[in-house]
Each structure stands twice: as structure tokens, then as C-alpha cells.
Amino acid sequence: MSQEFFNSRAATWDEKIAEKNPSKLRTMIDRLDIKPGASVLDVGTGTGVFVPYLLQKIGRHGKLTCLDFSAEMLKIARAKHFEGNITYLCADIASSGLADESFDTVVCYSVFPHFEDKPKIFREINRLLRREGAVYICHTSSRQAINKIHRGVPEVCDHLFPENEDTRRMLSEAGFTSINISEGKEDYLVSARKTIAHHL
User: pTM of this prediction?
Assistant: First the structure.
């Protein structure tokens, strides 16, 4: 995954790449079970396309941490001056340095194919979630459509969605249960919950 690739495209991302249909974004956020007051980690914030919708969900008592490894992308997100309890963190989710069990919910909007080591990142997300915390992997385009686009761009031609059974297996091996994968003609949503450890 190339920081240079995303840094170089940050200035034109909203114009050329990002989802521009607010109804698609609203429909997606409505499908995520995020409670008011929740502490949420937004992985791969990019230019902040999904941020206002997340802020509406968590309300004024919630906390949103926006993480991206592209400094230029985060710079654009910051410049939008979103109102709310927001922290911006320029880091790689694979080695974020964030504390164990810091979040109620982790959201990965429009970033999943770019995860280089998906099993490792799922384990890291599990570590960051509190007991019964949820992870959501969501896109406002179909898996097939995004794979087709990525195959046509040399820098990200191998940044592809796995088959659904592989995604399910990786999540399960990382300690997630209640795994649900929903594919539509214009969307993709995976939800899973952190397994509760039972101690004798």
C-alpha cells in the first residue's frame, strides 16, 4: 500500500474518486449499529467523506478518531472543519500504537481492499475494540465494481477484495463472531463482533 499514491491524489480525490451521492452515504450509515455517545475509530478516513455521517451517529457526547496513513488526505479532512469531538491520527492501522480496548466501534469505509496484511489488521482491530465491540467494513460500490477499477490502476492493481468465504475466515481467526457479509449491486457491508472471552 503506497502512501505516495494516496498523497499524490489527495488534492483531486473528492472531485474524481470519492462517493458524491449523499443518499448512498446516508443509507449506509443507517445500516451501522452505532450508538449515541460511542467511541468510534474511522480507519482510512481519507478526505473525510464519511466523517459527517459518523458524527451524526455518535452525537455530541461521542468521540471520533480519524486515522489515515496519508498525511495529505488527513490535511484535506481537517480543512473541512467538521464540528465534533474529533481526533486526527496519521498512522498505519497495522501499527497504530493505540491502546487496547479503546473503541466501541471500528469503521472501515472505502478502505478494505487497500489493507496489505488483512489478517494482521483484523487482529489489530480486534485488540482495539472493547468487549462486544463491532467492526464494519463498508463500501458504496459493489465488490466486483471496485475490483474491476483497481485492476485497471497499476499502483493498486493487487488491492482487491478477497472472496467472501476468505473474509469470513480471516475475521473468525482474528477473534470475531456474528460475521455478516451483505453484497448489493451498489454496496458492500461486512459486520462482525468481538468475541467475549470466558474465563473460569
Answer: 0.89
